[in-house]
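Forum: Protein Structure Q&A
Topic: Joint prediction for protein chains with partners

I've read a bunch of threads here and the consensus seems to be that you should model interacting components together rather than docking separate models afterwards. I'd like to see that in practice. Below is the full input, 708 residues plus whatever partners are listed. Could one of the regulars post the assembled result?
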Amino acid sequence: MGRLSSGDRPTVKDVAAVAGVSATTVSRVLAGNYPVAATTRGRVMRAVEQLDYVANAQARALVGGGPRTVAFIIRDLVGPLFAYIGQGVEQQTTAEGRLCLVCTHNGDPNRELELIELMREQQAEAVVLVGGGIRSAANLERMTQLAKALDRTGSRLVLCGRPPIGPDVPSTVVEYDNEGGAFAATNHLISLGHRQIAIIGVGEPEHTTTKARFAGYTRAHKAHGLNVAKQRVLPGVYDRESGYQHTKGLLDRGVPFTAIFAITDVVASGVLFALHEAGLRVPEDVSVIGYDDIPLAADLTPGLSTVHLPHEELGRTAIRLALHRDQYALDQHVVLGTHLVIRGSTGPAPQQQK
Amino acid sequence: MGRLSSGDRPTVKDVAAVAGVSATTVSRVLAGNYPVAATTRGRVMRAVEQLDYVANAQARALVGGGPRTVAFIIRDLVGPLFAYIGQGVEQQTTAEGRLCLVCTHNGDPNRELELIELMREQQAEAVVLVGGGIRSAANLERMTQLAKALDRTGSRLVLCGRPPIGPDVPSTVVEYDNEGGAFAATNHLISLGHRQIAIIGVGEPEHTTTKARFAGYTRAHKAHGLNVAKQRVLPGVYDRESGYQHTKGLLDRGVPFTAIFAITDVVASGVLFALHEAGLRVPEDVSVIGYDDIPLAADLTPGLSTVHLPHEELGRTAIRLALHRDQYALDQHVVLGTHLVIRGSTGPAPQQQK
DNA sequence: TCAGCTCCAGGTAACGTTTTCCACCTGGCG
DNA sequence: CGCCAGGTGGAAAACGTTACCTGGAGCTGA
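Posted by a regular:
Agreed with the consensus. Here's the joint model:
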């Protein structure tokens, strides 16, 4: 038992010494891939329990065994989208017998690049990047370089909810049909008779997600022969405050509108609050539609109509495609469909304009 | 460049060969902890870039260098509490120069034990367990054993939002003052004149969190000389549906009450929905208070009064204490304070009983 | 009785780093 | 002119594990 009080971890050698066998035999008993006499196995197992021995994963990895790891790099953990994408990634990663490493970059693109490098050192089998963002030319170039470096060593760069980097960049891309969802949402409002539909949250037109959603909004208008009025296209970022302020701005300036398309559900929650404060009824006076279908959406009053995104499926799909590139060689860029969820916040346009 | 097209990762030896130096020198250039002539360093750096070399973290870890890792084990990623605790854990872990490994056990205590074992193999410097749960005697015993095994190897078991396992179990414990928060919440309602306060969600009395919150509810009654009426103590689990169903049950059975203490905010959202459906006004007819202060709470209509839990701080504190046991030797069990957040869902008790 | 086979166990090398020790070279100084 | 110090670089061991190869014991059949 003397060994037990030592500060170091017991090694295979220690177990071997206690059991009176060689290190090789201990390894074989634990792996179970080689015939070992029952009595010997017994002694080894007893020694293992006595010492509370567990193998050193790093040493095992060095020689080729042990579980591989998948790295998950995201802006932060508190966004409502993360939880579900993360859930999908973690579940699939575990199901595939891999371990899941998580890092956040707080929106700093350079930190993101650093993390990819770090994960390359960690021998990550796949490096998953989540969420859109603004990509500079330099950033894209470095990203391309890293993607190629990963590819060369049998690893994989995975983009979740972010468009491909370039045509010849080896990577797995799984994104939402943001444009299509925005088209459907806008189309839904137009079908209800709305003609003056404001959109809130296009403050960063270079943001890939923003761009796609705004494009869907525009295309729906075009499809119905309607024009997009600049006064109803409002900037703002992806937060509640932004939705609140810009809705108040619309009201203060007296811009006519019967519906609001919020770029995300979180923005929509701010919109609803501002409308409520102004004494406007939803959906009788103003219809509101969001985007993302976060859990909050169902709990708002009224329930928020929105575009459902298959978050969990996104995470799972990404991992599945990345780890089985041989089977899914042709599907390394998939666009997941979205669908409308109609709750109580959208209704027919009011007859007489507000 | 021939080396570049190979499937293997370049090693320090490959770099050395390209640069025309020894492996030792390459290592020294990269570590920067030994004088190397400028010209030599230049050649090495060029070779590194040419080969896109990154060190193998596993090999490095084996010999003592490289970043350590912290394991984060939780039920699942989609609960609203996780995001913030996880954020705290990840931030502090990164700030301390460690990597963060995440696993979920979906509520299965045995899976949780397996994961601890797995993380022990991974040489995790700390293994963080999040959230309460039902602990059987066998589970506690095994947990004790694992805590000791971790301790023996210089690692640490960390319990977040979960009471200590036992008196002599080496572990770091950071929990919320659940009893105190529940006392404050109930006290708040009593101060507003409520005398018939239902509590919803005590379906699993062995659940440590449930037990503590119920204890606070009971103590507040006692402190004011009030009795707890069994008909107003309702079971139910921690979900929205549970809050909804049990509120309907109360109404259907005609049990008198002027306030409801929901065991979590999520349960409270179901309560609010049921009350709204029944045509009751909050807080004019019924006051509602929740627990946890999840982001949703502020967005409900009316805003939900609740008990704020410092989630992010919990995560950060846990990691800090665990990694600096030498400095915080006496503080390996801390109870973080909570505070009431009064929003619109609580008000004076109605004069005449419903 | 002995070759040959099966069953089981051990020795050794290898994985990719870092680190410790040692050797070389170049100057400067006595 | 020889010697020592300081500045550089390399060889080898070590980390803990597994895989490959070798070898001994016991049994079987000729």
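The longest strand of chain A covers residues 69-74.
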